[in-house]
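YM 10:42: ATP-binding protein sequence, as discussed on the call
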Amino acid sequence: MDPIRNPYAPGAGQRPPELAGRDRELDQFDVVLERIAKGRPERSLVLTGLRGVGKTVLLNALRSQAIGRLWGTGKIEARPEQTLRRPVAAALHMAVRELAARHRDPERVDYVLSVIKAFALRDGDVGRTGQSKAAAKPAHRWQPGIDVPAARGRADSGDIEIDLTELFTDAASIGTDLGVGIALFVDEMQDVPAPDLSALCAACHELSQTGAPLIIVGAGLPQLPVLLSSSKSYSERLFRYHRIDRLERQAADQALTAPAQREGVSFAVDALDSLYDAADGYPYFIQAYGKVAWDAALTSPITAEDVKVAAPEAEAELAVGFFGSRYERATPAEREYMRAMAALGDGPVPTADVAMSLGRRPSSLSPARDSLIKKGLVYAAERGSVAFTVPHFGHFLRSQPV
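YM 10:58: structure's back
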């Protein structure tokens, strides 16, 4: 069939042609937006799940809903060891700009922009005295693209918790004036540095008490709730958690058949059976196998034989782009640890069993395990056990030569 008309889209964060199986999350977020706009109390949201389940896609879909309700929105992707100041300032700058055209008081908007600029320019490396270690240095070379002078005495203390709270409060006031809100979307939230994550929780806590219309919508790996709870004990009540998992059979079929039907193509039942077995319900895999099956098929309907012929190509692409790229990031010691995990099975495995299989003391393997967690390759599934953040990663490792 015509590869140009192939509707499937396996890509990092790329929206599939049919966002199947996420209606509950989308409907609930509509309620959240409406309640906040009406001054009703609501919690910020956190999406968690393995790689490839569509967290980023859903995060972007939720942002589109907020934009559709005329909210101000901004999005950041957290990175390890990167302070939140610049990305949050840039995201809120975007959000305020989205609302500024409808605001009747340009001076008020300029004031909020000046606070954002002050927050961005304040050096984050501050000691206990509040004195910046860079205070004696020349002015920052980097400047945010905000054409107003930086405010003084607001969101510029150097204490990230104080500054985030003041920044969020002032930014939210623009939403209050317009009867809407501001939503800040944070992808890879588990990579937010611990002090900044604690400050983010504290700022959200303050906003929830004052009813200010600004919410955080975060997405991250399964360990994110534990990280939030460790940063602030009340975070368990501060966020509404949604675990994003693989699709059930009906939704997986819909993700394949709906785009095909729009192109006048159908699937035989046995082809859908084969595709579900291969993809195991994971949205990224569904797109990958769907794409190669389409290209392999000569005519409609796409059959199980087409899937069989195409599957090796999908597996080869996943081995390089989805699995291999992550495996290459690991050191030899980390690879040894992961191979030991894979030999023990596909689910969570006790760290003691990993150590036993390697003939090592558990404490000697802690550096490798902790580094793998920081790299987002494994997570602490429960006390004393670890699991892969990437579905089918154990199968991939077992298929590789030692």
